[in-house]
Structures are given as C-alpha cells and as structure tokens.
UniProtKB/TrEMBL annotation:
It comes from the Bacteria. This is Site-specific integrase. The keyword DNA-binding applies. InterPro entries: DNA_brk_join_enz (IPR011010), Integrase-like_cat_sf (IPR013762), Integrase_catalytic (IPR002104), Integrase_recombinase_N (IPR010998), Tyrosine_recombinase_XerCD (IPR050090).
Length: 417
C-alpha cells in the first residue's frame, strides 16, 4: 500500500513524499503539494504497487520513443504461441498458461531506475535476470509470512520457461522487419538443475515392488502394474496398447508402441483424453517383451478383437490414471507402508524402477534410451546417470588392467607385412 508522508521544511513549507514497497525495496517520489501527491499515490495503487507506466522519477510522465512494431511482451508472446505449428492443443495451452502466470511478472527497468511494462523491444538481459530471481525466490504473503502468494519455482521449471522466452525473443530478432538486434536471453545465468533435489523420483528394490504388488487384489490391475515395471513403458503408452500392436508368436516377441493417451485442451469436445502420437518421435518404438510380459499379453489377448485394448477395466474400457491410482495403486501402497514399506512410490516410479533394474544388470545407457523412447541420450544421462555409479569398480579394474600391461621396449620398431 502506498502512503503519503508530509515532510516539513525549514522555511515553513512542506514536501509530500509518496512511499511504497516494490519487490522488497522502498520507492519514493516527492511533490510540493498534497493534491498531486494523492493523485500519484492512486496511480501507484492502480498499477499494483508499481511505478506508473511512462513515469520518470522527478520528471513525471515522459513520452517514450516507440519502435515500430513494438508491443507488450505478453501480447507478443501470446501471438507467437498462437502461430506456432507442429504442436498439439494441450502444449499450446500449457505455453499460454506459462505466459499468463509467469511472463506477466517480467518488468523492464530503464536507465533512470524506473520500472515499466516490458515490451518485446525494451526487454534487457538485466530484466530477464531479475525475472529469474523472482522465479527462484517466490513471493510470500506480506500479511502472513508462513504463506506463499507464489511459491519458488524449481530449477527445471525455470529453465523450461526461460527456453520458451528465448524462442519468443529470437523470433523478434529474426522477424521482418527486425524488432531486435540480439537475444537478451542468450547469457542468462540459470540455476543448475542438479542443485534441485527431486524428491518425487523413487526407485524400488524388487522385494519392495513385490510388497506393493501383493496388496493389489484385482488380478487385472496387478497385471498392469507388472507390465509397467517390467517394460518401463509410460502409463499413457501401456494403457493405449491394442491387441493388434502385439507380436507374440515370433522368435522376438514385441509390442509396437505407436500411440499414447493425450490430455485434451480444456473445454474441448470429445472428453478429457484422446489418442495421439507418443511423446516424442523416438517414443515410436518396437519394445522387446520378456517371457513374463508375453504370458500376461497372451492371457489378456485371448478371445479379444484386434482393436481391443490390451488392458481394460471390468467394464471393458481403457484404464484412466486417476481411477487406477486412487482405487488400485494408492490403497496398495498405503497397506504396504503400514506393513513397513519405507517408500511412497507413484505410478510413474515404476518406469524409474525399471531403469534402475536395467542399470543394476549392467545394461548400457544408450540401450536404455532406446527402450524408454527418450529423444536424446542426454535426457537418459541426466535422469539416471547417477545410478551408474555401481559400475565404478568394474571401470577401476579395467583401467588397472590396461595400465598394468608391459611397456614397449625402447629401440624396437614395428615391422609391417
């Protein structure tokens, strides 16, 4: 809240100082009369406790030269996302949400230290850095420091949002006519992803998984859990499998992953989910099945039509995540925890668990990347590379063996045939 402080002067007159806090710092502007001070105080309040747009400290409203084609950053970003091609409606909606909630926090601070509305042309590297700090710090409720108005963002989310902002600014650099000469996001120092503790990622030992699985009393639901942990498939992929996707009679039984469930755009017709392509291009893959998965697939495929889903509810429909999680998985986890299970795994942790078992069996990361359908090996390394520490002893032995070989003798020359 902005307030007015009257400050008497030695000559008997007074100045009227408008005072308020902005981003944790005190801001002030002085006036010779109370009426203009009150008008300015109301302007500050109307701008959400910030300097009014176009106001220069000590000078008042100053007309700023405008760049042809310039527009507010949020407006430009929204238009950029609207025109993007090659993305689905859900992704477009996610980008719009990031713009509304997070890009709207970005402000431009000019050379006179006046905070203004950020536009696609006036945005600077300092403005982007200030925004990253806001994302890192969050915002607590001034009336109750124990509560958050906006929680701090994790490093991965900040990097993803900054990546979107980079693309938006780069579009202005490459536009015709050109709106910017360089990308102010290029040198932003971002928080390290490995500084963030991913408390959600849980790896189960085989015995720990069996303790959870034993509490799933529905045989069909148990088969689905076994399939997820045994294949490492995403939930959206496994529940979209159809009988026609299976090849069980060959020497190399497999499942052809070519579709996945997608969450539809809010307010769209046709329900909350629809079938679409997998998450990435490399997620389209042929997954080799172990004998245990072949046995499950044969049992569920028996007497079914090619277009039927492999895993179905008692009513013959495909499983929905919320239904399965709340009615099958969560009760089983809670019962297992009551009996001493020290972890609280999510459904997606079955995919993580599958990887941990493969790494423990000395399966190399490139092979795991292909099995999981990761677009880049870097994704596999970043997420699971720390589990490869179990190979350190093997690496040390190999290096020792190489270094212990006989040294070449001086004066001997190789003879070629």
């Amino acid at each position: 809240m902005a307030s007015i402080v009257e400050r008497p002067k030695k000559d008997g007159t007074a100045t009227f100082q408008v005072k308020w806090r902005q981003d944790g710092q005190w801001q002030t502007e002085n006036f010779g009369d109370r009426d203009p001070a009150e008008q300015f105080r109301r302007l500050v309040e109307a701008h959400g406790g910030r300097w009014p747009h176009g106001w220069v400290r000590g000078e008042g409203f100053v007309e700023q030269p405008k760049v042809p084609g310039d527009m507010p950053l949020v407006a430009y970003a929204t238009r950029y996302v609207d025109r993007l091609t090659g993305i689905d409606d859900r992704t477009r909606e996610d980008y719009h949400r990031e713009i509304r909630i997070h890009f709207s926090l970005i402000r431009h601070t000019d050379a006179a230290d006046v905070v203004r509305e950020a536009t696609i042309c006036n945005l600077t590297q300092d403005d982007v850095s200030d925004w990253v700090r806001l994302e890192e710090d969050g915002e607590r409720d001034p009336d109750d420091p124990e509560k958050w108005l906006r929680r701090e963002a994790d490093p991965k989310s900040i990097r993803n949002r900054h990546g979107l902002l980079y693309c938006i600014v780069q579009a202005a650099v490459e536009s015709e006519p050109q709106l910017r000469t360089k990308n102010c996001c290029a040198k932003t120092r971002l928080p390290r992803v490995d500084d963030d503790v991913d408390e959600e990622m849980t790896f189960l030992e085989r015995e720990e998984y069996q303790r959870v699985a034993a509490e799933i009393t529905d045989p069909d639901a148990r088969d689905l859990a076994d399939w997820l942990v045994g294949t490492g498939m995403r939930w959206s992929e496994a529940t979209a499998l159809k009988i026609s996707d299976l090849s069980l009679n060959s020497d190399r039984p497999s499942a052809n992953i070519q579709r996945a469930w997608k969450k539809a755009k809010k307010g769209s017709a046709g329900g909350a989910f629809y079938l679409g392509p997998p998450k990435t291009k490399k997620a389209r893959r042929m997954l080799r099945l172990a004998p245990a998965q072949v046995e499950v697939a044969r049992r569920h495929a028996a007497g079914r039509r090619p277009d039927d889903y492999l895993f179905r509810t008692a009513t013959g429909k495909s499983w929905r995540h919320a239904n399965y999680y709340n009615r099958k998985w969560l009760p089983a986890v809670q019962k297992a925890m009551e009996k001493g299970l020290p972890k609280r795994p999510r459904l997606h942790d079955l995919r993580h668990t599958h990887v941990s078992w493969l790494i423990a069996a000395r399966i190399p990361l490139p092979a795991i990347q292909i099995r999981l359908g990761h677009e880049s090996i870097q994704t596999t390394v970043d997420r699971y590379g720390h589990l490869v520490q179990g190979l350190d002893d093997d690496i040390a032995v190999a290096v020792e063996a190489a270094m212990a070989g006989p040294a070449p003798q001086a004066g001997l020359r190789s003879v070629s045939a």
